[in-house]
Amino acid sequence: VRPRILLLGGDGTRSGVPRHLDQLTQTLAAQADLTILSDRNLGGYDNVAGAGAAHIELEGLRNSLNPLRLWHGLTGTLRQVREGGWDVIWLHARLPALMLRVALTLRLWRPHAGARLMLSYHGIPFDPGHRAWAAWASR
Prior knowledge:
By secondary structure, this protein is α/β, with parallel strands linked by helices. The protein is 38% helix and 17% strand. The protein has a five-stranded parallel beta sheet with strand order 3-2-1-4-5. α4 (94-105) links the parallel β4 and β5 (116-119).
């Protein structure tokens, strides 16, 4: 049985996280069923379907100060992780990682038995150059 893996990205522009998810898709597509959840594709995720991954676009997964947008991202992400029956949920972008860490802390979500949660940081989300409140929350 092929494992079902959800890869959580953020912003859909051409940047490091989409490039890394594209590379992971090319590497893992023969061994697993892959789905990428990200904000609207703005060129960063153009190659993933051809490489063998499904792609779900969800407004609210890129950094924003708009609380309604963030709420939409959180609720949509929770819906996907609760209903997807994923074997692995692999967080790559800062905002979705923070959202699910908060959901775990507040007991809004618990992975099903046997599911694995993985976290990759692409750039330290609390180094100089990030917003002070975002750096604090990421720590």
